[in-house]
Amino acid sequence: MKKALLAFVAILVVGGLILVLANGARLTQIAPQWVIIQLARQVAEPGPFDVPLDIKVERDVVFAETDDGPLALDIYTPKIRPAERLPVIVFVFGGGWFAGNKYQIQRVEGHLWTRHGYAVIATSYRLSQVATFPAQIHDVKATIRWIRANADKYNFDKNSIGAWGLSAGGHLVALLATTNGNRELEGDTGGPALRGYSSDIQAVLDFYGVADLPSLTGPGEWMTEMLLGGRVSERNVLARLASPETHASAQTAPLLIVHGDKDETAPIEQNARFHDRLQAVKANSTLHIIAGAGHGGEEFRTPAVRKMLIDFFDEHLKSD
Predict the structure, then answer these.
(1) Residue (of 311, 246, 309, 316) closest to 281 by Cα position
(2) CATH number, domain with residue 75
(3) pLDDT digits (tens, 9 = 90+) for 72-95
(4) How far apart are CA 27 and CA 20, in angstroms?
(5) CA distance to 20, 52, 138, 263, per residue, from 40 (Å)
(6) Contacts of 105 (CB under 8 A, 6+ apart)
(7) Which domain holds residue 249?
(8) Full-prediction pTM beyond 0.85?
(9) For a Cys staple, 105 with which of 25, 91, 176, 275, CB 3.0–4.6 Å?
(10) 114 or 44: which carries more pLDDT confidence?
């Protein structure tokens, strides 16, 4: 029975991203929620891969200690580095906020962006069964502060930091983009060592994240409830606080949203409305819809899409 369930979950995972949401109702009919969580984590939490010879990786650098344990990140840089400071792209993994890890970056070949002149950092955040929102955004913001605190040590360009997130990670980086300078969601992950550094971001790439949690219905509701620590109807204020659309303003960092029009996990309507809201407030937002694509998949890793993503980060993170 367990092997059959694991196979079923594996079918729903593309590129390391949990797609259980799309068929969550069906899956919960044949297994308790805790079984789904454990099986999904087996699929969404790979181990580290070997990296190509032209890439250097420094793994498990602790950027913050929390009451729930340490948080670590991996740093990928070109083995032969230019003299100038490197702009940074931060990768935030997906998995319904309850699963996933920083090694997903290698499944989607994000570490190869070092070949385009970037330092790439795959970070971590507390999962929802460990801590409820806003712990997750506090942890991601602490990553940005850590980069600035350590810019001289690693020769990072502290004025050129972007973020890329998938699914739940897409939601978190979109929240990063819309809350530049927002003290309410800053938190204190990392404590005194990171205080005084900005968590502002210069460009964000959101792969099929959700933008308005109160309107998210269907099989995905239980994952949202895990994130919030209860029913959305009973935590509506918190749900709105956790929604990137709530915070949209002209100060939002440049945002590229990429979404499949056949996505049943995070409906395309979520980001279509978010994009409209961003445009209404004069934010720099682009919505790229991939026809026929679902929640992840090879359609998001074509050469044309890759070029679009690099061009976006080059425009906003590299000096003329």
Answers:
(1) 246
(2) 3.40.50.1820
(3) 999 999 999 999 999 999 999 999
(4) 8
(5) 8, 28, 24, 19
(6) 74, 76, 91, 93, 111, 120, 122
(7) 51-317
(8) yes
(9) 91
(10) 114
